Amino acid sequence: MAHQAGGQWQAPRPVPEGCEAQAYLHDYAALLEAVSFPSLVVDHRWNVVMANGAFETLFRGVRPHPTAMPGDNFLRFVLFHPDARDVLGEHEPGWCLPMLAHLRTALERCPHDHELQAIRREVAQDPIMEAAYRQGLPHWIRAVGEAATRLDGAVRLLLHPDPRRGPTECRIVDETTPTLQGAGCTRLTMVLRDARRPVAAARRPRRPRGTGAHLTVVPAPED
Asked: Can you state the percent helix, strand and coil of the chain, rounding each to 5?
């Protein structure tokens, strides 16, 4: 059975697809737990439907947060949890900006979704993040191309809590089955690599909880 980050056993979250889909997700959780790499299943709001023990291990040092735990909503974790940069290396360009792009896409597809709108309002409350969403994100996409916003195949830096790994690149692989897709879910696996990078190049000081402005740099617009 899959875990929720934080160490508690978790049954798959309900999806509006009937008993057969529930049974499928229950069995799929056992498959997910057999994978040695961090792996999770999310819905279109990035709520975590299930996650395995390797995912839990990756985020085991994350402090409690009322709305942005990695095992609850991964989008909120990336954007709003002050500890996110302690696990997600190169946090702003590698994780925040791509996830802001996914938030924008999700809102374009489901403009009246209350949970997505709530995340958007929370972004708007942070002046730097709002500037990144409105001005920085379009400039960044023009500079790097739409492909940089895709998760499948992307290589990202993790700061793994296991000292035997430390800074480790991972390739994100989309392993969504047709049944998961039909239930409105996506499975993502972080395939850890052996190559390492210096900690000093990626780690930043931990911010006290409650501080705003989780982004520090907004790409400057072109003249």
From this structure: 40, 20, 40
Residue type, 217: V
- Domains of the chain (ranges; CATH) run 3-201 (3.30.450)
Which of these ranges, 14-18, 55-59, 187-191, has the smallest mean pLDDT?
14-18
Do residues 199 and 85 lie in contact, with contact meaning Cβ atoms separated by under 8 Å? no
pTM of the model: 0.82
pLDDT tens track for 53-68 = 999 999 999 999 999 9
Minimal CA–CA distance to 90: which of 216, 212, 210? Answer: 216
Identify each DSSP E strand in the chain by its residue range: 3-4, 8-9, 39-43, 48-51, 155-159, 167-174, 185-196
Confidence of residue 195 (pLDDT cuts 50, 70, 90): low
Averaged over 25-40, what is the pLDDT?
A: 94
Of 108, 141, 113, 94, residue with least CA distance to 43: 113
Q: Is 92 strand, coil or helix?
A: helix
CB of 219 within 8 A of CB of 143? yes
The backbone torsions φ and ψ at residue 73, rounded to the nearest 5 degrees and listed phi first, read: -140, 115
Q: How far apart are CA 223 and CA 206, in angstroms?
A: 34
